[in-house]
Specification:
The protein has 282 residues and is α/β, with parallel strands linked by helices. 44% of the residues lie in helices and 16% in strands. The N and C termini lie far apart (57 Å). It folds into three domains: 109 residues, Tetrapyrrole methylase, N-terminal domain (Cobalt-precorrin-4 Transmethylase, domain 1, 3-Layer(aba) Sandwich), CATH 3.40.1010; 114 residues, 2-Layer Sandwich (Methyltransferase, Cobalt-precorrin-4 Transmethylase, Domain 2); 46 residues. Bound molecules: S-adenosylmethionine.
Length: 282
Amino acid sequence: MNNHNALYIIATPIGNLLDMTQRAVDVLKQVDCIAAEDTRHSARLMQHYHIATPLIAYHDHSDATQVARIVEKLRAGQSVALISDAGTPLISDPGYRLVTKVRSEGMTVVPIPGPCAVIAALSASGLPCDRFSFEGFPPAKQKARQSQFEALLKDTRTLIFYESPHRITASLADMRDIFGGDRQIVFARELTKTFETFLSGTLDEICVKVAEDDNQRRGEIVVMVRGAQEEEKREALDEATEKTMRILMQELSVKQAAALASKLTGEKKNRLYQWALEQQGK
Ligand code: SAM
């Protein structure tokens, strides 16, 4: 059996309680204790699978003493499991400090793989899965969020974000401004649960759908953005449009210059915005 003294990183369901692997249940029953992000929340899962192992709290605000306590148990020959509220620990969840510490002490860390929202969403999205970038939660502050999206504008990989219902409208609006209304996205919600939904379309289309239907702003959300197309990156502006942009950029913000030049020249606002960002980066 696996139960020698190691730290086991155990994935748990992201909604549907049946998505628990047999190995996860076995190891959770056999370890000496389970470090959980929220012990009350995890009690339900433990009850469902008749797991009686003691739970202790571990979250990102846990102080060094808590990390030291777990390391001490491992040193004493015990085995410990780490779980989060849902999905794979450390993936936008606590555990990084603990795993780093345990590894730095030369002790064993064993993953017990299972549910993870980013992988579940991507696997059923229909977007390219050969290369992707998981970006976690976009920053809460708009300026930082926009900067993150700008840095990803030319990335050709599928981009994947977690987002909360109360920020989804603002985040989608910023994505539309920066990636352009034509960029394809897949909006995945409530995976493995009763109201599991996949919406595919352009950012313009999905922004409208999410604004019109309150239900789309409920529950848990993963947003996947198709990567930039190679030809999009290389396209040059014609001379007159480029001149208009250069003049406007001396007086206005990049966003304002792109919007006004789009009206003057008929060129797509996003194309102009992208071009302006490229110039700034030169
Ligand atoms: N560790 C988890 C994992 O492996 O996916 C992620 C934890 S993170 C704190 C929570 C976020 O993950 C949610 O806000 C949502 O963006 C995403 N998420 C988790 N469960 C989900 C689900 N059932 N459907 C869609 N997104 C989900």
